[in-house]
Specification:
The protein is mainly α and 87 residues long. Helices cover 72% and strands 0% of the residues. The protein contains six helices and no strands.
Amino acid sequence: MTEDREAVDADDESGLGERERAVLAVERRSWPGPGAKERAVRERLGLSPTRYYQLLNALLDDPRALAHDPVTVNRLRRVRDERRRRR
């Protein structure tokens, strides 16, 4: 069983659904090269990359996601904020 699958299967009291936990699990991983993450999103989650990033962006503002995985959510919030500042 992979680490991602274990994270999705784990009993979660944060109130997040399985799909939301799976999105955060994908973001927790490092990816070897361009396109690998998008391919995994399609294969594992059955989502287009556009829909995946829409869900991810909404999760970053969800306090349940922050409670579930504060390290990942805070890292992604910093990245998002930096990109917004550069615009």
